[in-house]
Amino acid sequence: MHYGFILLPTVQVLVPAQERYRQRIEYFDSMQEIEEIAVRPFSSREEYELMLDYFYNADDSFLRGMGVDRLKLPPRDKWLDALLTDHEKADTERDRFYLVWIFRGRRVGHSSINNIAVGTEAFIHLHLWNSQLRRAGLGTEFVRRSASFYFERFNLKRLVCEPWAGNLAPNRVLEKLGFAFVGRYRTTPGVIAYEQDVNRYELRSDQGLPASR
Fold first, then answer.
1. In this structure, what DSSP letter does residue 194 have?
2. Same domain, yes or no, for 80 and 141?
3. What would the pLDDT profile of 80-115 be if each residue is shown by its tens digit?
């Protein structure tokens, strides 16, 4: 009987300590991962090719999950030619601007903006190419850095994002970063998209972005 009373407090003391240690390790692991993240503008034909691989090599269910209709994808060579032509234009004339996402020295995704009105607003899009990293929670930091870059480079007052309402991951990322939910409506949000319900989010430059965690 006495042994039971002696052991029980010991267990109760050790469990919180172990939990605090586990949380501390997870925190340092998270901080290390954040330090290994970088974003920068696309700089080569190869990076556009990698971005196209993401779309053309995806299966139909994955494409549909992010609101894309495979039948609307243009011929690959024509899309690539258009991308490379646009890449050479000045910022004020760009149809779309791309950032490559880098983790531990590897290119793992991209973001882009289109409908660019320099000095006013643009629409942001986000894609992690690596399925394992999608589950690792790194998307939030990639989007935070991308948004910061676009605000500064294009002197934007507002960023708009309209993900498919049924795609929960990007909706959660946007909410974590302080994007305000404006409303839901039905539209065809792009030339390679099907008609769908989208959630409209907006982030103003004067709001600021949360610090990395």
1. P
2. yes
3. 999 999 999 999 999 999 999 999 999 999 999 999
Q: Does residue 183 sit in the same domain as residue 100? A: yes
Q: Write out the residue range of the structural domain in which residue 114 sits.
A: 38-207
Residues 45 and 146 in one domain: yes
- CATH number of the domain that residue 45 is part of: 3.40.630.30
Residue 5's CB: how many other CB atoms inside 10 A? 8
Q: Which two tokens stand for residue 26?
A: 């997870």
Q: What kind and span of H or E run contains 116? A: strand 106-117
pTM as predicted? 0.82
Cβ atoms of 193 and 72 within 8 Å: the answer is: yes
**Letter string b/e over residues 90-112, b meaning 16 or more CB atoms within 10 A of that residue's CB:** eeeebebbbbbbbbeeebbbbbb
CA 167 → CA 64, 68, 189, distances in Å? 10, 12, 14
Q: How far apart (Å, rounded) are the C-alpha atoms in residues 198 and 167?
A: 9
Q: Is residue 77 part of a domain?
A: yes
H-type alpha helices, the chain: 2-35, 45-56, 60-65, 76-87, 131-134, 139-154, 168-176
